[in-house]
């Protein structure tokens, strides 16, 4: 298998982007990434798109062809692939594109992730998100997506004594980081009190424990590592990747306070990269809810199981703490256009490893990790990145 | 050979509303209304309950008391005036939900408040003729009274299921008679949300004419008078009519007390006489004799003379909550929540 | 309208019909064609199995942001329930105040409306759980 590196990144701002359509967003991110890689159209071998549910959000399927077309690539008749996997789809698309290059099939692949979530009302958007849980045996019975994560949170509080304040510390930290990120949906800091007093969504999760609905897109350009130097002075190598699945319904999982898919995907990625959690300085993890970040830092073995709450409250995962988690602001503050998430996380890690993260730069960042979830943890994808030199 | 009740089960939703909390919204003296009707509260179905869920719960309560194979039930009939569907029977859902499907016949009945007793008579015939081993007769309703109308104080929700057969009979039906005429005392046209009624016309020419005449027919058929019965139960649109009818027929307060559930839960329409009968069966002893007269507007009465047998000791009467326990298990609502649950608030189109 | 989709699940949703593996005895709900423990060994050996309806609460939440079908009931309680047979499922808790719900509390199945396809459409029924005496 050949080595693969990231030679270009790009993203739109994330937020409620009323003026921009799905097409607008996909193209913008893609073109930025291609420009960043100093590519010509002729250099591109394939396009992979991560998108969760354009069919339900904007009644449009077959978005792979759509994005390539509107990016001006239709004449090149490239192979285009749309990848779905709940919230993990962008990270899966990245993995699939990596495999395509590693196998020798392609040399240069553009990977984009995009979602347009605000064209439908909030209630409908929440129902669409719920379709990544078990529709027949969870959603139909009244379990909302937030409700399922709330039940994990309740159990985590019951078993480990995790508190609402500790969960709120995740949101506060991520908003603090988001305030340093010009592309973030929310650039204002918030307080623990604001989180605790926000209206309930599904107890014990309140409005500020939940990532927003967002529009946005992100893209990276992957290149076979030997050729990468021709395009970038700072190619960022994908050192390892891991993907795992689990029972679809939360109630079928082995343990309600551990996402086995994260644990296994993480182990697979670390194994391939011949790295340990302690080798990682910066990580973008899937904080669709505050509890999700606590579970992630435990399940990725950055923090001992059960101690994710106190660790966050004590600042271990703050910018330039023991491990900088979600320097972009995370899904919580940077935003959560579902299909874009996995790719946007990669964009942030690449920027960090290149030393281009500006005010939110992690000092001495050499190894970075992305962690992305599908549904309530039935899919998890972990990528490890390192500087090419 | 006689047929009779092999098992029984009732279900009453937990929510309640008091007459005074209804009256205050419509500028009426609700407490006085309540006193006038002899109703202290009425039952209200929750937003996820309807005649189908009530019928299923009642049927399951009935089956839980005995060890019978549900596939031996050859017919299920549900009588109601508030079936969730105008077309698509409640009875088929009950059949699936108690494991009787698919080898059985089923249908829904309508005859205002006496649709359940009509189902009893039908299943008596089917089992006596040996066409089948058992039949399940259910009466259940979630009836509505128009906002501000007198009926709003009494129209309530609940139901009961009676398993009828000729074997293992716990309450033998010795006689049944009926009295039926075309009398427009209370009705609801297809498509109308709320029923209409003839005010005071619902009394003498309707309820009393049919109940009293039918009762006299039953006394004659059975060769009895009121003294020979341990219990009497009548259709109970309010707490006054059945008391008056009982008195006129020679029954004493002690005989009608056990079955007079309307005082605590209001008028459960097709469920009323059936629930009253279940309340009696919850406490009856072998040898007890029961006089039951239902009434349905439109109009008609079905009357039954029952004798409790030794078999009642074999029924697990405490397998599910008794009617008394269900009446006591109550959560009181204000009018706004009641209106919300009863679909009386104009919602945005889904 | 998803008529066949809901109709197909009637036995499971009305009567808690699942499967029991003929190979290892594990009970699954809803029914499975393949036992997650035994894999291919179990194919053709999965037996129809009815749950008893009793279980206890493993975790729960009170839902405030409700989907359209549950708008009338919010806030409402959802729970993951471990049935006496060992298998878990997700369902609404009814006839209980949210503040009275406890992990470990015993519950039993009831029959309730799950939703409907608008005022003119089919009504869907299934299990919800209430506190057991």
Low-confidence segments of chain A, ≥5 residues, pLDDT <50? none
CATH superfamily of the largest domain in chain B: Thiolase/Chalcone synthase
Helix-strand category of chain B: alpha/beta
How many distinct beta strands of chain A?
12
- Widest sheet, order of strands of chain A: 3-2-4-7-1-8-12-11-9-10
Rounded average pLDDT of chain B: 97
Please give the CATH class of the largest domain in chain B: Alpha Beta
Number of helices of chain B: 12
Assign an overall shape of chain A. Answer: globular
User: How does CATH name the architecture of the largest domain in chain B?
Assistant: 3-Layer(aba) Sandwich
Strand % of chain B is 15-25%
Our measurement of the CA-to-CA distance between the termini of chain A, rounded to an integer number of angstroms, reads 19 Å
Number of discrete helical segments of chain A? 15
- What is the helix content of chain B? 25-40%
Strand tally of chain B, please? Answer: 14
Question: How does this structure look, described?
Answer:
The complex is a heterotrimer of chains A (389), B (350) and C (133). Chain A has helices spanning 22-36, 54-58, 63-73, 89-102, 122-130, 135-139, 145-160, 164-178, 192-197, 225-228, 260-273, 290-299, 308-313, 330-334, 341-354, and strands at 4-11, 46-50, 80-83, 108-116, 200-203, 205-206, 215-224, 236-245, 282-284, 324-325, 367-374, 379-387. Chain A is an alpha/beta fold and 389 residues long. Chain A has 2 domains: 4-121 and 214-231, Thiolase/Chalcone synthase (Peroxisomal Thiolase, Chain A, domain 1, 3-Layer(aba) Sandwich), CATH 3.40.47.10; 128-212 and 240-387, Peroxisomal Thiolase, Chain A, domain 1 (3-Layer(aba) Sandwich). Chain A has a 10-stranded mixed beta sheet, sandwiched between helices. In chain A, strands 5-6 form a two-stranded antiparallel sheet. In chain A, a hairpin with a 4-residue loop joins strand 11 (367-374) and strand 12 (379-387). In chain A, helix 1 (22-36) packs across helix 3, helix 4 packs across helix 15 and helix 8 (164-178) crosses helix 12. The longest helix of chain A is centred in the middle third of the chain and has 16 residues, at 145-160. Chain B has 350 residues and is α/β, with parallel strands linked by helices. Chain B has 2 domains: 4-170 and 316-341, Peroxisomal Thiolase, Chain A, domain 1 (3-Layer(aba) Sandwich), CATH 3.40.47.10; 173-311, Peroxisomal Thiolase, Chain A, domain 1, CATH 3.40.47.10. Chain B has 12 helices and 14 strands. In chain B, the strands form 3 sheets. A 9-stranded mixed beta sheet of chain B has the order 5-4-6-7-1-8-13-12-11, with helices on both faces. The longest helix of chain B has 20 residues, at 203-222. Helix content of chain C is 8%, strand content 42%. Chain C has 2 helices and 8 strands, in the order ααββββββββ. The interface between A and C is large, with 36 and 36 residues. Strand 5 (200-203) of chain A pairs antiparallel with strand 4 (54-63) of chain C.
